[in-house]
Amino acid sequence: MDHEPSTSPILPPDDRGPADEVEAGSGQGGPAAVPGPGRIVLAATPIGNVGDASTRLIELLTTADIIAAEDTRRLHRLVQNLGITVAGRIISYHEHNEAAKTGELLDQVRSGKTLAMVTDAGMPSVSDPGFRLVEGAVAAGLTVTAAPGPSAVLTALALSGLPTDRFCFEGFLPRKAGERASRLADLDAERRTMVFFEAPHRLEPMLRALRERFGAERRAAVCRELTKTYEEVIRGTLRELLEWAESNEVRGEIAVVVGGAPEQEPGTPEDHVAAVNGLIAQGIRLKEAVAAVAEDARVSKRELYSAVLSAR
Fold first, then answer.
1. DSSP-derived 3-state class of residue 208
2. Which parts of the chain register pLDDT below 70?
């Protein structure tokens, strides 16, 4: 979600060497430890409630050689709340510097270091920094794994009361009205439940754009401050949600969940004659135009062909 990156270092760099790995089956008196291969671990952080921090996340924060953090100040607060100490080197890694710092981080992993990637909340690379790092690691043949955990996308979807069997994540809509309208036009026929992120001060124009594109009666939910003290989920139609946003001062992290487009009735073959004629006007042969429209409209090709000929 919306974050203000920081470049302030908060803990001293780690001067340890690469983590050691003991050969399988060796005891305390076994052969000397040798440097193990480096790896990147995408570590999910709490989206609001610090109690959701996993034991794997805590272990990573205390043992990783390097922690790449979207905002070092937020990481410092998380570490304090968890009552743990970070021994590794902390590097600020966010959307404004990831292009410059990705190569450096990959070099550290090549040398055998364990790198933990954390963002302000939730899973790295999901509408947050991390994708460029994963992309580079995959291209370089380096190991990438994850310590999964809290997700604002899945939490909002689960609480929305909307269908969860099929869904898509659309992230933040464009800020400019024209670009936002164009993006929503692409989603006109989207049948899956859609999950968006939005900033509080842009929620009202976003809901207005959703209402204008999808209709006032489309079901949706605004999920605010998930897992936090003032968690709130407002469910209703887009008309009702816009009225709520207009009459309230909305704050906090926000996810908006919108029901997919309703299934359209196939109608009769006569209803689709104009569509066939439109394709013919573009130079498409009659049989090909009938086949294309019939498949899209889920009607009989034979009946549609007959309807086109009868209308002439």
1. helix
2. 1-36, 264-266
